[in-house]
Amino acid sequence: MKEGYNMLHEYSRMELLIGEEGVKRLAKSRIAVFGIGGVGSYVVEALARCGVGNLTLVDNDTVSITNLNRQLIALHSTLGRAKTQVAKERIHDIDPDILVNTYETFYGPQTKELFDLGEFDYVVDAIDTVSAKLLLIEESKKVQTQIISCMGTGNKMDPGRFEITDINKTTNCPLAKVVRSELRKRGIKKVKVLYSKELPIKERKIRDMKTETKGNTERPVPGSISFVPSVAGLMIAGEVIRDLLGGK
Fold this sequence. Notes:
This protein is α/β, with parallel strands linked by helices. It has helices at 12-27, 40-49, 83-94, 130-142, 174-185, 229-244, and strands at 30-34, 54-58, 99-103, 122-125, 146-150, 162-166, 192-196, 211-214, 217-220. The model has no long low-confidence stretch (mean pLDDT 92).
């Protein structure tokens, strides 16, 4: 946190909204973001620009040509590089004092012990693999760390249909339906999620892009466009910040 609040600093405009104590609270906050893709990259960017003092970024992927249409970290100059490392550089270009921890790994049963989720004030789930989402939610609940989970943003065109609610109040989202059912089996009744009421648009069949590998599974490639996952990411970041500030 910068000293001397009578002087202009990176967060002067934000301080007008949340006050000096709010800025200090965010500077002391520790947040983990799992998945640095179309949604997660915008979450990370917004959290950094809010001065969150400690960020942990988790993703085993590298920037690819198909990321260019929607991921904040995706540029021709970053193709082939680890997403976490590109995001870390952006964060430090915003505020060099933010502590950034990176893990180039896929979150799952074999890697969950790398993370003490109890040390975080908040966990953001921007993973797009069901098994990993369920595990991350379950492990966060065990240690009573706040978590928000992003449901499906693929095959959507209307960012105005996004809302943040409890998993049990979701409709029209195939991913949320699966996650809701599986969480009930695990005895987890409430999870804050971002989802869209928009019915998924049937994606076109694109030659050589019919499936992609995530973790140990293959799945159909969803369609996506720049202004949908970005809005989802910014909404999630806003919810996290408001929660950390006590609902302001």
